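Section 3.1: Structural characterization of target chains.
Under the original work plan, the team committed to producing a structural model for every single-chain target entering the pipeline before any wet-lab resources were allocated. The record below documents one such target. The sequence was received from the expression subgroup and is listed exactly as submitted; it comprises 248 residues.
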Amino acid sequence: MKPITKFQCLDSFQLKVFAMFFMLCDHMWATVVPGNQWLTVIGRLAFPIFAFEISEGFLKTKNFKKYFGRLFLFALISEIPFNLMFSGTWFYPYGQNVLFTFCIALVFLRLMKWGKEKNLPIYLFTIGISCILGYSLGALFMTDYAGYGVLTVFLFYIFHDVKFGWLYQLLGMIVIHGYLMSGIALNIPFAGHVYEISQQAVAVLSLLLIWMYNGKPGTKNRTLRTLCYAFYPAHMLILSLIWLYILN
C-alpha cells in the first residue's frame, strides 16, 4: 500500500502501539477493572489492526520460516498467561491464544501466495481452500477469534493494494465483525430511539487507523520489535497475577 495523501501518516510500529493500547484496555476490563464496559469496547479495535500487521508482515518478510517460527514461539510462551487471564487456571484446553490464530493464517497465506504465483484459477482455488480449512482449524482448535480471526487476516491479504481494496475491506469487516460474530450488545441512543448493535461491530472502526498506514516499518530496532511480541504474554501475566493473587 503506497502513501498517496497526507492522511496516510502512520507507520507499522505506530499502528502496533495503538493496537497494544487497545488490547491492554480490553484485558484490563477482563481482569483488574471489570464492569467498565467502555474498556472492552475500545478493545474491539485491537484485533483487526494486529490481523492487518500479520498480513503486512507476511507480504514483506524475506524469511517466512523465521517469521513463522518467531510467532509460533511466542504463541507457546503466551499460552499459560492466556490461560490464567481467560480461565484463572494454568491449564485450560478449551481456548488458545490469538497468536495460534495468526499461525494458522500464515500457513494458508503461504498457500495463497503459491497459488497467486501460478495463475488466476489456481489462486482463486487456493483462496477457497484456505478460507474453508483456515476457518475450520481456527474453530477446531478454539483459538482466540477462532475461524473469524483467520478470515480477517485473509481479508487484508487478498485485498491488499487492489483497486477499491478499501471498499472490500470495509464490506468484509462489516460481514465478519458486524454480522457473523456474536457478542455483547451495545445500546446506542439516537434521535429519541435506542438501537442495539453487536459490541464486536466496533471493530469496523479500526479501519480508520489501518487506512492511515503509510507502508513504512517505522523502526528497525530489533529490541523494540521483540518487545512488541513480548508485550502480549507479559501484560497478560501481570494482569492475571494482580487479579488472581492481589485483588481476590
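The first strand starts at residue 185 and ends at 190.
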